[in-house]
Write a structure and sequence with these properties.
- It contains ten helices and four strands; from the N terminus they run H-H-H-E-E-H-H-H-H-E-E-H-H-H.
- The chain has 484 residues and is an alpha+beta fold.
- The protein has a single domain (14-88, 138-307, 350-478), classed as Outer membrane efflux proteins (OEP).
- A four-stranded antiparallel β-sheet has the order 1-2-3-4, with no helix packed on it.
- Helix 3 (69-89) runs antiparallel to helix 4, helix 4 packs antiparallel against helix 9 (420-455) and helix 4 (141-207) packs across helix 10.
Length: 484
């Protein structure tokens, strides 16, 4: 009866785990975004980069997902977390092993000098045992540690998805910036060629006394202004290409081009509620998993106050002769139950519990901060998209007006109704207006990318699947088993 009551108590206690169970903390979530556009579409889970309609951009993103070094590091971290979880949860199950030994020994002859027969003969002992041990997790210490390790694994997986989210966005932004710089370079080179032709004509006219030297100097000043802008733009192009090459996982070098900045179609703006961020942003999910892990470690620390109960057993054979080792008379077995617990630790366990509780508080604050940062990122991205769109529209109107002004000033100068300074003034406004338009066009397209990056969404899982497919293909090509 006593034994049955003991077993029932063990079963009941085995279902308990010390420490608080995790509950998602209440958060003050905004009801809507201030700058959410009316034309937003329910496309948060689509591969948005394909909406640009540029196969070169699609290929670059696929290459980055397959070769980026940060993604590979993040994948290795996930494998490491998986291995840690396997190690932590293994004590929940009985541990089986084996042991074998062979000993030959002869006692010291001086111990037997007074006994008949003198020095004893050497003796041999052979043993072979199967071992089993099991720690009864009555207080849930191992289960809480397993819960924490599982949360760490999920946090590591979310960290990997965060790397993928950032990578796709950075590749797209870098490519758009590159195409914007290409347009600025094209504008500068066109302007330089036009200004160079003007300088050549005015120098000929000056030789024949048709224009003043001041007019030639003004034309040359405009030419050198355009010439000075080109090296700076070329340097930015090289730096952007090198940065993009690193994102792709390749050595620095040139990047292929697809559609021009004018030909790229802006993706639709995704729709979403602020509360969606709790289930879409990898950094928010990662922060929550870290909170879950720290919450579980409180229970693991509290369990140290209670005794550890372990069962160990061994069954095998022991014999002085090897050929008789596996015969019936050589059977041997042992079974041991041990109870070990603290009495006075002078604050050692209390310190661990306090440390775990403090870590949980820090993780809670980090989770709340991650949520707030996610809301701020999304608001900033939506606001930036709206304001950049307004800037681009205004800049387009300015560009059209500047082109018309330059055209009319040239006509008046050619007709003798205005000095060349009027043409120069018009060109001085047109050239920077064209450069600014190219820059804003790139920034406006990149602002939509920032919205997708800020809101997260199912597209991250699609990108992750592309990464896994590329990794599997690479493993098959090299003959490496998957996951190795």
């Amino acid at each position: 009866m006593l034994r049955r009551a003991f077993l029932i108590a063990i079963v009941l206690l085995a279902g308990c785990a010390l420490g608080p169970d995790y509950r998602r903390p209440g958060l003050d979530v905004p009801e809507s975004y201030r700058y959410a556009p009316q034309e937003a579409a329910d496309i948060i889970d689509t591969a948005w980069w394909q909406q640009f309609g540029d196969p070169v951009l699609d290929a670059l993103i696929a290459e980055a997902l397959a070769g980026n070094k940060d993604v590979k590091i993040a994948a290795a971290n996930v494998e490491q977390a998986e291995a840690v979880l396997m190690q932590v949860r293994s004590p929940l199950f009985p541990q089986l092993g084996y042991e074998g030994s062979a000993t030959r020994q002869r006692p010291s002859g001086t111990l037997y000098e007074t006994l008949p027969g003198g020095r004893p003969d050497a003796r041999s002992t052979f043993e072979a045992y199967g071992l089993a041990s099991w720690e009864l997790d009555l207080w849930g210490r191992i289960r809480r540690q397993t819960e924490a390790a599982r949360a760490d694994l999920l946090a590591t997986q979310e960290a990997r998805r965060g790397v993928i989210l950032s990578l796709v966005a950075q590749v797209a932004k870098s490519y758009l910036a590159l195409r914007g710089l290409d347009e600025q370079l094209a504008v500068s080179q066109r302007s330089l060629a036009a200004y160079g032709e003007s300088v050549r004509l005015f120098e000929l006219q000056f030789q024949y006394g048709q224009v003043s030297e001041m007019t030639v100097a003004q034309a040359r000043t405009q030419y050198e202004t355009a010439a000075a802008a080109i090296p700076d733009i070329q340097e930015q192009i090289i730096q952007t290409e090198n940065a993009l090459s690193l994102l792709l996982g390749r050595n620095p070098g040139p990047i292929p081009r697809g559609k021009t900045i004018q030909e790229l179609a802006p993706p639709a703006v995704p729709v979403g509620l602020p509360s969606d961020l709790l289930a879409q942003r990898p950094d928010v999910l990662r922060a929550e998993e870290n909170l879950i892990a720290q919450n579980a470690l409180i229970g693991a620390a509290r369990a140290l106050y209670f005794p550890t109960i372990s069962l160990t057993g061994a069954y095998g054979k022991a014999s002085e002769e090897l050929h008789r080792l596996f015969k019936d008379p050589s059977k041997s077995w042992t079974f041991t139950g041990t109870v070990q617990g603290p009495l006075f630790t002078f604050g050692a366990i209390y310190g661990q519990v306090k440390q775990a509780s403090a870590s949980q508080k820090a993780a809670l604050a980090a989770y709340e901060a991650a949520v707030q940062n996610a809301f701020a990122d999304t608001e900033n991205a939506l606001s930036s998209r709206e304001k950049l769109g307004e800037q681009l529209a205004a800049q387009t109107r300015l560009l059209n007006a500047s082109r018309n002004y330059e055209h009319l000033a040239t006509l008046q100068y050619n007709g003798g109704y205005a000095p060349y300074s009027t043409v120069l003034q018009a060109q001085q406004q047109l050239f920077p207006a064209e450069l600014k338009w190219a820059q804003l066009s790139s920034s406006a397209l990149a602002s939509v990318v920032a919205v997708y990056q800020a809101m997260g969404g199912g597209w991250v899982l699609q990108a992750e699947a592309m990464t896994e497919d590329a990794t599997a293909a690479a493993d098959n090509a090299t003959g490496t088993p998957a996951g190795q």
